[in-house]
Structure formats: C-alpha cells, structure tokens
C-alpha cells in the first residue's frame, strides 16, 4: 500500500482533471533535468477540480518544476473502480515517455490517488521507497518476513528476486487490490515463480501471525490516503513487537508531507510524527529514520525499528544499487 522522496516536483498530466506528482530525492539521475545522480522517487496523485480553485500565475520555479511532465498521450488508464475499501486505478506509462516511469504500471488507491505499487516489465528496482524496504532481509534472523499492507507486491517481488532463501507472508485487507495486482501488475507471475516462498492472505494485517514468529515485519498500512490510526497507538506497536523472533526488526513506511489524506484537515507530516512518537514509546532509542526528501514541505520517510546493525556488514550484504541507503539513517530524536 503504500509508497516515499523529493528534491523537486515533476507532474504527469493524466487527464484534464487530474495531475500526478512525483518527488525524487537528491540521490543517484532519473529525471532529465536538474540532477546528477539517480534518485529514488515518491509519488502522489492530486485530483484537481478546475471549478474549485482560482487561476494563479505560476512562478518561474514552479514552471521549471512542472516542465518534466509526461504528455497525456503517454498515459493510459487500464482500469478504475471502487471496491469495498478503495478507489482503485491502474495507469500504464508508455515506454516512449522520456521519464523514469516509462514502461511502468502504477496502482493508485484512495481518493487522492496515492501510488501504492509500481511494476516494471523488465526490472525490479523501482527507484522508490520499495527499494529501501528491500534492504531489510540481510539484517534479520532466519525465518519468514511478514509484509503488512501487501498492495500489489512491489516490495515482495524485489525481495524474492534479490534474496533466494527469503520467505514472505503478505497480508492485504482488500481482495480487489490483490486481484488487480495479479491481472495488471505481474503478481500472478511472481506467485507462480515462487510458490513455496510467497504466501498471500486476505485479512486484517494487524492480526497476522505465524508459528515461532516473524524474522521481520514490513509495515505499509494506509487507508483513505493516510497511515491507519492504529499506528499512532503505542499498544499496536507492543502487539507487533510480540510477533517478532529474537533479534527481529520492523521497517515502516511512515509517509510524510508527500502523502495526501482524503480528509484535508489531516496532514501527512503530522500523522508521520504521531506514528514515530508511538513507535518510540515502545522501542525507545531503537528507532532510526531515513528521509527520502530534502524539502520540508515535501518529505517522505521510512523508519527501522530494533536498532541498526554493523553498517559496513549491512552495506556489503546488499546488492550494489541499494547500498547507498545504508548511510542515510538517522536516530529518531537524535
């Protein structure tokens, strides 16, 4: 569910009433202007109703930020419908587009259209926060990894390909999300490729359990465009802590300002801070945060819970495209 980074803002004009914004960080070049290295990207989808806002002349900076958009002819809507839990859309970006998402399919959920899964036909690295989540397995004890908020399986696909011994138990509340993932985003192929390593459950992720516990948990739980309220409650983190094996760790997509809730009275940054405070009450001194953006108004973060390992050993254990993330963690409150 999910999805996190930003140094400047790029817009994709999808249809006259919608715009999709991507926020790359200042890390490794995927956008064609104003950057030197290829960057992980975060994405969010803004419904824009022309009748509800006045025309404002854009500043020069805003024009520069928006000049890297994907033309509408390169965007195709494959499916859109409302399920019991979500407003679901799948978009396809043409391979001809001069853009880092060229050739991808995107799963958008919620009214704001936050992007929850990215699927490329010929590669698994997404240059988005899913890549950060995929750095977790090498620092875990033996045992299954639980993904709470499976979405269409972007993180799972990457982890299964990178770590041949990994076993994943994924939990998703909305069966329609899994169905769309199977039909449009390659999940069916992943399931066939790893029948003994990937197990998907349609259930409340917070009730997930396996015998002897999880080696680690990835928590990517959003609803109505925001982190679910339970994650702002320390009791939830006590419960999740009890699901771990000794030495187990949790990695959490905590969102940030780049995540737009359906309720305009809520702020993604505030919800992120409330979530981190709740986590820290249970794992005091063991919470580290990786911020994928450097603009205060457009940040996005991932947290790791359970402390950091030896950084050099962690770095060496990772595939080269993911190693730079190791140096980006900062202690929460430190």
Query: In what range is the share of β-strand residues?
Result: 25-35%
- H-E string: EEEHEEEEHEHEHHEEEEHEHEEHE
CATH superfamily of the largest domain, please? Vaccinia Virus protein VP39
What is the residue-mean pLDDT, rounded to a whole number? 80
Helicity level, as a percent range? 10-25%
Shape: globular
Question: What's the number of domains?
Answer: 2
- The total count of helices amounts to 8
**Overall strand count:** 17
- Uncertain spans, ≥5 residues at pLDDT below 50? 1-67
Computed structural class? alpha+beta
How far do the termini sit from each other? Answer: 29 Å
So, CATH architecture of the largest domain? 3-Layer(aba) Sandwich
Determine Rg (CA atoms, Å). Answer: 19 Å
Q: What is the class of the largest domain in the CATH system? A: Alpha Beta
Organism: Solanum stoloniferum
GO biological process, one term: polyamine biosynthetic process
Protein name: S-adenosylmethionine-dependent methyltransferase
InterPro entries: SAM-dependent_MTases_sf
Kindly describe this structure.
With 334 residues, the protein is α+β, with helices and mostly antiparallel strands. The chain has two domains: 111 residues, no CATH class; 203 residues, Vaccinia Virus protein VP39 (Rossmann fold), CATH 3.40.50. The protein is 20% helix and 29% strand. It has eight helices and 17 strands. The protein has an eight-stranded mixed β-sheet with strand order 10-9-8-11-14-16-15-17. Strands 4-5-6-7 form a four-stranded antiparallel β-sheet, covered by helices on one side. It has a three-stranded antiparallel β-sheet with strand order 1-2-3, with no helix packed on it. Strand 8, helix 3 and strand 9 form a beta-alpha-beta unit. The two termini are 29 Å apart. The relative contact order is 0.14. The N terminus is likely disordered.
């Amino acid at each position: 569910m999910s999805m996190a980074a930003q140094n400047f803002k790029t817009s994709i004009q999808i249809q006259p009433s919608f715009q999709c914004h991507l926020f790359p960080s200042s890390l490794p070049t995927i956008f064609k202007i104003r950057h030197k290295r290829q960057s992980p990207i975060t994405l969010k989808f803004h419904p824009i109703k022309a009748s509800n806002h006045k025309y404002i002349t854009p500043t020069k900076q805003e024009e520069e930020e928006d000049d890297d958009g994907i033309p509408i002819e390169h965007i195709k809507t494959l499916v859109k419908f409302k399920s019991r839990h979500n407003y679901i859309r799948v978009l396809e970006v043409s391979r001809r587009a001069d853009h880092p998402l060229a050739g991808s399919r995107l799963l958008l959920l919620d009214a704001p259209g936050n992007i929850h899964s990215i699927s490329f036909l010929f590669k698994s690295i997404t240059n988005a926060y899913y890549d950060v989540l995929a750095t977790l397995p090498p620092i875990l004890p033996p045992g299954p990894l639980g993904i709470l908020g499976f979405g269409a399986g972007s993180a799972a696909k990457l982890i299964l390909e990178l770590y041949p011994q990994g076993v994943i138990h994924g939990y998703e509340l909305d069966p329609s999300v899994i169905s769309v993932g199977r039909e449009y985003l390659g999940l069916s192929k992943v399931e066939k490729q790893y029948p003994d390593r990937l197990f998907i459950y349609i259930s409340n992720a917070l009730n997930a359990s396996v015998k002897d516990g999880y080696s680690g948990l990835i928590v990517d739980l959003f609803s109505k465009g925001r982190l679910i309220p339970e994650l702002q409650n320390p009791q939830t983190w006590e419960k999740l802590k009890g699901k771990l094996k000794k030495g187990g760790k949790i990695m959490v997509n905590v969102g940030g300002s780049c995540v737009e809730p359906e309720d305009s009275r809520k702020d993604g940054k505030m919800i992120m801070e409330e979530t981190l405070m709740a986590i820290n009450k249970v794992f005091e001194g063991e919470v580290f945060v990786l911020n994928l953006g450097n603009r205060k108004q457009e940040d996005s973060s991932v947290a790791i819970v359970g402390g950091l390992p030896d950084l050099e050993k962690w770095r060496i254990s990772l595939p080269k495209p993911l190693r730079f993330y190791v140096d980006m963690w900062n202690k929460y409150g430190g």
